[in-house]
Amino acid sequence: MAEHNKSIIRVMVIDDNTTMRSILRYQLNQMGVTDLVEASNGKEALSKLRDPGLRKPHAILCDLHMDQMDGLEFCNVFRNDKELKATGIPIIIVTADGERFTHEVAHQVGAHEVLTKPFTTAVLQRELEQAIGFQFSDQAA
């Protein structure tokens, strides 16, 4: 796994809960990841991802349960869209739902990984490193 400057990493955070977006932003900032794009649901995220002016993220953190378009539907639409699928952007589902079946379905519709809340910054960093394919130059506390 190559080591890179984490300040070049861009992450999209999709969550309808502003508090959870703030927590994820804080955790990512602790890791040195400050280039973020946020969306409050899957529809808004798809609109942003389809914007040709948007610099594409290296990874997507997506809540499972949201209004308008939930995480499973987002993954399914993302993976069935030729242009978006071609980007190869890994999607990490974040959820309080610890049911194994839910995690299996998330993987089946294209999630790279499923993280059950709550999780530490170190766990998030490890999963992000594995999804993106490179290691940050130092570890999160």
| Main β-sheet description | 5 strands, parallel
Shape: globular
Chain-averaged pLDDT: 91
Superfamily at the CATH H level?
Response regulator
> Quaternary status of these chains?
single chain
Report Rg: 14 Å
Q: Strands of the largest sheet, in order across it?
A: 3-2-4-5-6
For this structure, what is the CATH class? Alpha Beta
Briefly note the structural class of the backbone: alpha/beta
What level of helicity do the residues show? 40-55%
Model regions low in confidence, pLDDT < 50 over at least 5 residues? none
CATH architectural category: 3-Layer(aba) Sandwich
What's the number of domains? 1
Strand portion: 15-25%
Secondary-structure element sequence? EEHEHEHHEHEHE
Describe what you observe in this structure:
- The protein has 6 helices and 7 strands.
- The chain is of the alpha/beta class and 141 residues long.
- α2 runs parallel beside α3 (71-80).
- The protein has one domain: Response regulator (Rossmann fold, 3-Layer(aba) Sandwich), CATH 3.40.50.
- The strands form 2 sheets. A 5-stranded parallel β-sheet has the order 3-2-4-5-6, sandwiched between helices. A two-stranded parallel ribbon has the order 1-7.
- The protein has helices at residues 18-30, 42-49, 71-80, 82-87, 100-108, 121-132, and strands at residues 2-4, 10-14, 35-39, 59-63, 91-95, 113-116, 134-136.
- Helices cover 41% and strands 21% of the residues.
